[in-house]
Amino acid sequence: MAVAEGVLPFRQFVLKIHSRCDLACDHCYVYEHADQSWRGRPPVISPETVAKAGERIAEHARDHGLPEVRVILHGGEPLLAGAAALASIAHGLRRAVEPVCRLDLRIHTNGVRLNAELCELFRAERVQVGISLDGDRAANDLHRRYANGRSSHDQVLRAVALLRGERYREIYAGLLATIDIRSDPVAVYRALAALEPPNLDFLLPHGTWDSPPPGAGEPGATRYADWLTAVFGEWTRDGRRVPIRMFESIIETSYGGVSGTESLGLAPSDVAVIETDGTIEQADSIKVAYDGAPATGLDIFRHPLDAAAAHPAIKARQQGIAGLSATCRQCPVVTSCGGGLYAHRYRTGSGFANPSVYCADLEKIITHVRADEAARRRPAHAMPQAHFDALAAGYGDATSVSYLSAAQRSVRRALLRLLRERVPDDAHGPFAAGWNLLIRLDKSAPAAVEEVLAHPYVRAWAERCLRTPGAVAADAGHLASVAAAAAVRSGTLAELDVPVADGYVHLPTLGRLRVGDTGSATATLAARGEGAFEVRAASGKWHVASGAAPEPDHDWQPVRELRAGEVAVRFEDTDPYRDCHQWPAAGRLTDGDAAAWQARFAAAWRLIERDYPRYAPGVAAGLVVLLPLANDEPGREISAAARPAYGAVAAALPATGADLALLIIHEFQHVKLGALTDMFDLCDRTDQRVFFAPWRDDPRPLGALLQGTYAHIAVTDYWRVRRHRVDGRDALAAAERFARWRTMTAEAIETLADSGALTPLGARFVDGMRATVEPWLAEQVPAAAAVAAQRWAAARREAWQRQRES
Ligand code: SF4
């Protein structure tokens, strides 16, 4: 048969084999929406209709030279057709189609009737089985109930358990969940991901502009996007181990690929529906628009499928961007969105020539996924000029800091590769075991691997191994602890030997387990899944039920967290390689000491967010660890950052939250600049000269002067704001400090600029610092404060001059 000109072939056929259902889901598009055509159809497809459908599909595939077609057995509930009919349908379709092309045969079911007999049948007939399940029990019970209100959850889980078993796993196609924004998105995701579906998809509930779904279509409302954003975040943290079609389609279409779902993207629709009576219809979802909406007036007994492909309503969905509303055509996310699902655009009067009723949600979730993906794909050692300049000014937002974090990621991995080359294959069992486990986890649980590798003291450990003579031999085995921590975090089953150091087994980011003197340099750690693990040594056996097991189980000392609102940082007092700062690290703190830190941190973060909004987003994005320092002089304020420990700020407990706020923003300047100088040369590293640093007794190399100056921008800014937040003598003291630090910082900036040792990028960076500080020099301070600051600066310069002359 000749192919009609301009006809795009169908490649997917939804074959309705039973038009009734044994559940009464209230969000079902077949029974609960505008189109009620099911009422006039035979409940079960006849053998003659199946035979004709097979014949028509084969004819269509032959005429268009299709290498493969997909047929989805659907309903209603297709399992109501019964085993004998299902076997006959599958067999008949294969017999008709396979002489012409490959047949990807699937069935989509609510699962409640799926049993071993049916699974056996589907396995024999190579039928892939997809299941509708809306999430955890609470989410599923919102809609998926029997007519008498009884839950279907247990039956569906039984069906999925069958499909996950070894015998039927090959026919497990995946899960399809319809979103209800009243349910907990993270709980829904976790419940579905735990069932290990080969594919998972989320459907937006059907609706139109005439009859919007709950919470959609209202100006400014993006509750579905917010719900999906939460799922996306959890999915990403979970290592994206389950493919989610919606998110993967957004990513694919953002980079020139094709969407895997008809609800997104610009690809022409290629789906035809064949009803139980042989009528040919458009996609089921259009039933939500109006009664009779999917009808084409065609049927397989009188018409070839090409007649349907040439139908104006079907062709309207094959025009790509030209077939969309004017608003969609100009939309920045149109290549990923494609106006959303065709049915969701409907409005009485304008028909389907509208954006989706989910427009605001689609734009928001697509933009979010794109931004996240762009950050992942960004070359590690590149940074847009605008973010470089924002950092040079002393600030930098979360995105600016994300560039620094991405660069650190590649530095860490380069160090590990270097270490791998240095460690002989046969010399260090724990290192080799750790390496192999990390390679495996990097594929199956990359987020957990990244989380542990990003712990500041992993790089500190790697650098120590590479730089310190003898450390490769002594310390390289710590990699096994790093890998074990990633396995425990990701719930992966694993077993390996890990080092015992000073009587402890360490799991970086999680904590340490006291095992005492084991008589051996290693113990065996078995990760049992879901955060549980077991350690076996000659001296005993310990089982830890969760990585966050609370004290007072004194054998397990978990890393605690400091929290303030949405911000959480690890309070690190267990890592064996944390002692890399200028001041010694404190030992394990008591719960009382930790509580004092928590109170101080919460107060500090409130102040940073309120008074220092230009620093807060960058700090929130990059600070992952607060390390307590030992302090043998109570009252002395000490703090530090260390170049290898990106993301960590160390401090002794200061007297007030305000003091801690200053220490954090001051030290985080060092963190930012350390990472930036890992990416770019800002000054001549071979220059041996030293320079006057107004705040120091000793002269400093240029790089150290640059670090100090950058940090003191934040210190100056702190006092600049603080003087307006306190009263009386405190205000005068704050003003004096502001005046003093702005003078010193400005002077250091000019020293840097005149050094002659800055690279062009370094000169740009120093110009950025100057542009921030210069206006501060003109700000009014009390005369007494200005005079004190000038006297102080003059005295420092004279002392420096005398030192040089001597
Ligand atoms: S986000 Fe809205 S305007 Fe943009 S393509 Fe989708 S539906 Fe159309």
How does the SSE layout of this entry go?
Elements lengths: L11 E5 L30 H18 L3 E7 L8 H15 L4 E8 L6 H9 L3 E5 L4 H5 L11 H12 L7 E7 L6 H9 L6 E4 L19 H15 L7 H10 L16 E4 L4 E3 L13 E5 L5 H5 L2 H4 L10 H4 L4 H4 L21 H19 L7 H8 L5 H25 L6 H16 L1 H8 L2 H12 L3 H5 L2 H13 L3 E6 L4 E4 L3 E4 L7 E8 L2 E6 L2 E5 L11 E3 L1 E5 L2 E5 L19 H21 L4 H7 L2 E4 L10 E2 L7 E4 L5 H23 L10 E2 L8 E2 H21 L5 H27 L5 H18 L5 H23 L1
Parallel strand pairs: 1-2, 1-7, 2-3, 3-4, 4-5, 5-6, 18-19, 19-21
Antiparallel strand pairs: 7-8, 8-9, 10-13, 11-12, 12-16, 13-14, 14-15, 17-18, 20-21, 22-23
Helix pairs in contact: 1-2, 2-3, 6-7, 7-13, 8-13, 14-26, 15-18, 15-22, 15-23, 16-17, 16-20, 17-20, 21-23, 23-24, 24-25, 25-26, 25-27
The structure holds iron/sulfur cluster.
Key traits:
806 residues; 9-stranded mixed beta sheet; 27 helices; alpha/beta; 44% helix
Describe this structure in words.
It is a single chain. With 806 residues, the chain is of the alpha/beta class. It is built from 27 helices and 23 strands. The strands form 5 sheets. The protein has a 9-stranded mixed sheet with strand order 6-5-4-3-2-1-7-8-9. The chain has a 5-stranded mixed sheet with strand order 17-18-19-21-20. The protein has a 4-stranded antiparallel sheet with strand order 10-13-14-15. Helix 1 runs parallel beside helix 2. Bound molecules: iron/sulfur cluster. Iron/sulfur cluster binds at residues 327-328, 331, 333-334, 337, 339-340, 355-356, 359, 362-363. Residues 327-328, 331, 333-334, 337, 339-340, 355-356, 359, 362-363 line the site of iron/sulfur cluster.
